[in-house]
Design goal:
Rossmann fold; 2 domains; six-stranded mixed β-sheet; five-stranded mixed barrel; 8 helices; elongated; binds adenosine-5'-triphosphate
């Protein structure tokens, strides 16, 4: 499978700069996700890699081959969209065979490869079915088989699961990942769904305004965001402004309206100075509630709301000196705290407090 290198890619639509000097490496066999707010350039990047957009500047290489100006059909990629784009008047077999017939593959070979692709997506024996006789999930599988049957060097998936209900989405997540891994496919996947990205990706890139602002594994992006934008975009977080107080050998102490909080920088290349303005990111599940004041990282607050969800209880606390609420998520609590007028203490271990540059 192919490895992809992108250097200095610029794509403009009139005055809109959709991709702004973007650099990215995608390794061979990687399931790589593109995430980011609406309009940040995900689809434009995907379509540029597939060859449907020709960039104004920059270079795209597949292995060592420069494909920047190579037309889509010669790049040997396959695309799968949210609207499955299946032919309703053709049966399953014909839909999957379409790309091979276009490439003038011989009939016995087509039969062998279509049957193989249908088996891959667990649709064997359903070749004669009409498209409108299939469930949404089955149609999704046919679309996947059609993309795989041409043996693409790279599979592109643009929101492929967004038409499916929640249960099917989860089922198809592991199915798509299994297929990509079984066949060592290089795949690039665009989604709005962070859970989809976190649960499926080998690595992901977060885009903003046509630029990549962070690349990493799901754990790196979730646990070590390098900006408030990434921290707030991937998962829930509490962002608390502060100022660098002092640095010890182990941690960095940040003075906030809630008191001094010890934390760590996620970016090894960034070392904030004393008195520098920063923002702390603390995930709701990293905070715990105590009746007594903890020794370190103690924030005092009063309960505003508690919501019991079985698996978790979610609390919102008003903290002294902070205008925003602090959100806390407790896994399967034995007792849900409901006392609104009592003071509570909240704490997080310094390893879970991420210090970020102030935006
Ligand atoms: P979404 O998550 O909403 O699908 P996206 O991250 O995929 O968004 P793109 O579709 O890549 O974003 O769009 C990036 C920017 O380029 C946006 O400002 C969009 O309006 C603009 N754009 C995209 N395609 C075109 C086009 N064909 N003509 C003009 N502007 C376009």
């Amino acid at each position: 499978m192919v490895s992809i290198r992108i250097r200095g890619l610029v794509k403009r639509f009139g005055d809109v700069v959709a991709l702004d000097h973007l650099d990215l490496n995608i390794e061979s066999g990687e399931l790589f996700f593109l995430l980011g707010p609406s309009g940040c350039g995900k689809t434009t990047l995907l379509r540029s890699i597939a060859g449907f957009h020709i960039p104004e500047e920059g270079e795209i290489t597949f292995d060592r081959q420069d494909v920047t100006k190579v037309p889509p059909h010669k790049r040997e990629t396959a695309m799968m969209f949210q609207s499955y784009a299946l032919w309703p008047h053709l049966n399953v077999f014909k839909n999957v065979a379409f790309g091979l017939e276009e490439r003038r593959v011989r009939k016995p070979e087509i039969k062998r490869r279509v049957e193989g692709a249908l088996a891959m997506v667990k649709m064997e024996g359903l070749g004669n079915r009409k498209i409108n006789e299939l469930s949404g999930g089955q149609q999704q599988r046919v679309a996947l088989a059609r993309a795989l049957v041409v043996r693409p060097r790279c599979l592109m998936l643009d929101e492929p699961l967004s038409n499916l209900d929640a249960k099917l989405r989860i089922e198809m997540r592991s199915e798509i990942r299994r297929i990509c891994k079984d066949f060592g496919l290089t795949a690039i996947y665009v989604t709005h769904d962070q859970k989809e990205a976190l649960s499926m990706a080998d690595r992901m890139a977060i885009l903003d305004e046509g630029k990549i602002i962070q690349v990493g594994t799901p754990e790196e992006v979730y646990r070590q965001p390098r900006s408030t934008l990434v921290a707030g975009f991937v998962g829930e977080t509490n962002l608390i402004p502060g100022t660098i107080e002092f640095k010890s050998d182990d941690h960095i102490y940040v003075s906030t309206a809630l008191g001094d909080i010890a934390g760590e920088c996620a970016d090894p290349e960034w070392s904030p100075e004393q008195n520098e303005k920063v923002v702390l990111s603390i995930r709701p599940e990293c905070l715990s509630i105590h009746a007594e004041k903890p020794v370190q990282n103690a924030l005092k607050g009063y309960l505003k709301e508690s919501i019991y969800l079985g698996e978790t209880a979610q609390y919102s606390l008003m903290a002294e000196g902070l205008s925003q609420l602090i959100h806390i998520s407790e896994l399967n609590p034995r007792r849900v705290i409901r006392e609104k007028n009592e003071p509570f203490y909240v704490t997080a271990s310094p390893e879970d407090v991420v210090i970020l540059p102030a935006p």
